[in-house]
Amino acid sequence: MSNTSLLKSLFKYKAWANEELFSSLQQLDENTHQAELHAAIRTLNHIYVVDRLFVANLQGTLHEYTATNTTETPNLNSLLTSVRNTDLWYIEYTEKISEPELNEVVNFTFVDGDLGSMSREEMLAHIVTHGSYHRGAVGRILAQLSVAPPRDIYSRFLHASEPNRRSN
Hints:
Layout: H1 3-25, H2 34-59, H3 76-96, H4 99-102, E1 105-109, E2 115-119, H5 120-144, H6 154-161
Antiparallel strand pairs: 1-2
Helix pairs in contact: 1-3, 1-5, 2-3, 2-5
């Protein structure tokens, strides 16, 4: 498996995992679990903002953010729409990028003003791992509410999206 095909698969997985998690959160009663839902949305919004920061870095464009989260907290459904659009951007990006482009180093500035330098491949890996880490924190919030968090593991995604992997 090449790096580009692995990245394509990982970003499809990321979109799938986001859908699973948002679906679980939509089951929560907004009034009964207001604080927990707010904490979950803030965490998911942080993932989204970082995803957008790296879209700008990958494109070599400016972004509108001054921090890794926004002052205002979006509602769950509007955030889901934004996340879906960004997930689609990454899926399309990884479908087009070549192996040599993955090795290109991009210089950028973090929102705190520090300078950064990463290859495109490293940036993409960061986005996948960063999102997974924080989705786990949201899953923990669900578990504390006695709601089973989604089993958003990569192997489950592969077998759900390619059922033929279950036959030997």
